[in-house]
Amino acid sequence: MSSEFPAIQPGGSLILAWRIQGKKVLVVGGGVVASGRINHVLNADGIPIVVSPESGLCKEVAYRINEKQVEWRNREFSPDDITEDIAMVLSAVDDPSLSTQIYKLCQSKRVPINAADIPPECDFYFGAEIREGPLQIMVSTNGKGPKLATIIRDHIRNSLPNHVSGAITQTGLLRQKLREIAPTPEQGKKRMRWMIRLCEKWTLNELGSLKEEQMDKLLCHFPSSVPTYKELVSSPPNILENCVWGTTILLTGGLILAKYWKH
């Protein structure tokens, strides 16, 4: 009976896609590690606030400051930096005692923190990431082997199929259009089943090459059927099979008939 369900593997982390758009993230430190943390925040559309004296800035952090991509406080860390509007804290300093002080402050204020290279003082970890447009894949060893995470990440990246980014982008556009023609919660299961059938039937290359005008033609098959890509692009417009073309023909015919009737 128990074999019907997946086995529990304790000791892992809860892998989440944390949305921090428009939220302030305090980065303590200005070195190379801090630059990587800043990039993560900027790629997620967050607002990095960097606390570091000028003497502690690496070239990339100095560049981000010069380009006004981050807010910079040119001084050492102060407990007053952790204000109520700070969504998370990223400690990237070489001073373990200072990092522990920051960790304890965050715990008292219930602000999540990541302290670089100190796993016990982390509420969350950064993993080795793959970014291909809308696709994000993270590999985590739960703080046990960061270099191994990088090696595994590179292996996964090299094995990714071509056109994966384009396929995800076009599928996202198609889902938006589908939700417009079937917007109600009651139609949710039909939308899901139809999209699953499409993704299983089409290749990534076919999904990525789908043009917007072809999406309208494809959506006319919802929810009853899913044509193959070849059937979609090779079939001529047909009033019975394609609602977009059919609507155009009917409207044009109606206008001609109305004009003839008027005369």
TrEMBL record:
SUPFAM superfamilies in the record: NAD(P)-binding Rossmann-fold domains, Siroheme synthase middle domains-like
GO terms assigned for molecular function: ferrochelatase activity; precorrin-2 dehydrogenase activity
Top EC group: oxidoreductase
Pathway annotation: Porphyrin-containing compound metabolism; siroheme biosynthesis; sirohydrochlorin from precorrin-2: step 1/1
Tree of life domain: Eukaryota
Signal peptide residues on this chain, from the entry's feature table: none
Annotated Gene3D superfamilies: NAD(P)-binding Rossmann-like Domain, Siroheme synthase, domain 2, Siroheme synthase, domain 3
Keywords from the UniProt entry: NAD, Oxidoreductase, Porphyrin biosynthesis
Boundaries of every Siroheme biosynthesis protein Met8 C-terminal domain copy: 161-224
The enzyme's E.C. designation: 1.3.1.76
Catalytic activity entry: precorrin-2 + NAD(+) = sirohydrochlorin + NADH + 2 H(+)
InterPro entries according to UniProt: Met8-like (IPR028161), Met8_C (IPR028162), NAD(P)-bd_dom_sf (IPR036291), Sirohaem_synthase_central (IPR028281), Sirohaem_synthase_N (IPR006367)
GO biological process, one term: siroheme biosynthetic process
Keyword Oxidoreductase: yes
Pfam families, alphabetized: NAD_binding_7, Sirohm_synth_C, Sirohm_synth_M
Domain annotation Siroheme synthase central: ranges: 133-158
Name of the featured protein: precorrin-2 dehydrogenase
Organism ancestry: Eukaryota, Fungi, Dikarya, Ascomycota, Taphrinomycotina
